[in-house]
Amino acid sequence: MTPKRGLITDTFKVVKKARRGGKRDKSPSPPVAEPEPPQLSEREKDLQELKKFDLDWKFGPCTGISRLQRWERAALHGLNPPQEIKDILLKESTDPEYTQSLWRDYPL
User: Fold this and answer.
1) Are 58 and 79 in contact (CB under 8 A)?
2) Per the record, where are the segments of Basic residues compositional bias (predicted)?
3) CB of 51 within 8 A of CB of 102?
């Protein structure tokens, strides 16, 4: 038979460390105020919506055509593209940032 094995505390003396300074009354820290997100301009909001439209593949590919052409093609095929996208595109029909997709600078 093997001898009964004891606990490690049987061999080594348990020593508790003394706390420094004892208990202190800490006042709770004030809650951290969350910074408000920056307000986006009308242009930034519009471009953000157009970017979402570019990234949504349910309206078909968008390389090689303008956003308005893509919107019209999606409507022709019954894919129900958002009307607000068309409104944005018609409002800013001359600005290339509005009319061209995200991938306008990449050749096919």
Assistant:
1) yes
2) 14-23
3) yes
C-alpha–C-alpha distance, residues 79 and 91, integer Å: 22
What angle do the packed helices 67-76 and 83-91 form, to 10 degrees?
150
Distances from the Cα of 86 to the Cα of 8, 48, 52, 103, 108, angstroms: 76, 14, 13, 19, 25
**pLDDT 10s digits, 81-101:** 999 999 999 998 888 898 998
pLDDT at 1 over 60: no
CA dist list (Å): 58 to 3, 41, 53, 55, 88: 74, 28, 9, 9, 19
